[in-house]
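Entry 14: structure prediction run for Succinate dehydrogenase hydrophobic membrane anchor subunit. Input pasted below.
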Amino acid sequence: MAETLNLDKPRSARRPAARRSNFELYSWLFMRISGLLLVVLVLGHLFIMNILDGGVHRINFAFVAGRWSSPFWQFWDLAMLWLAMIHGGNGLRTIIDDYARRDSTRFWLKMVLYVAVVVIVLLGTLVIFTFDPNIPAD
Ligand code: HEM
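Run finished. Output tokens:
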């Protein structure tokens, strides 16, 4: 005669395997890739602005106007702005997560950081694309 096997019910309810997002993996990868791009963008920027052809002494409104008349330099500066802000913002997010002890401190520090990143990225992008070289001198 067949006996039925009776097992106790498991104490905890069955749950589907937790779905973990890969956000931290991609953010880790982004830091490496943006870091490499920033080496080129930032060192190129420093070289042109501070060393080449008299360096900072030749920088004035006309110099900036001349550079931003070229889509190449507009894009260079835009890439530098976006990458440095997202790279720096994501780096600071990690530091806040590591060091902030209270949940509320961590939350508010990150809110300040995110607002600052968004405002600076939007403002910088607006300036690069709406810059007017013909502003009257007076
Ligand atoms: C110029 C070339 C740059 C390279 C090669 C570079 C590379 C990196 C790398 C690989 C990391 C990750 C470190 C880790 O996960 O342990 C990192 C973190 C970080 N980066 Fe950059 N970065 C550069 C520029 C910048 C700039 C311009 C900023 C600021 C706007 C910045 C701010 C940060 C911050 C705040 C962190 C987090 C540091 C930490 O976790 O302790 N970096 N950088």
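Notes: The pocket of protoporphyrin IX containing FE is lined by residues 31-32, 35, 38-39, 42, 84, 87-88, 91-92, 94-95 (CB under 6 Å). Will compare against the previous run tomorrow.
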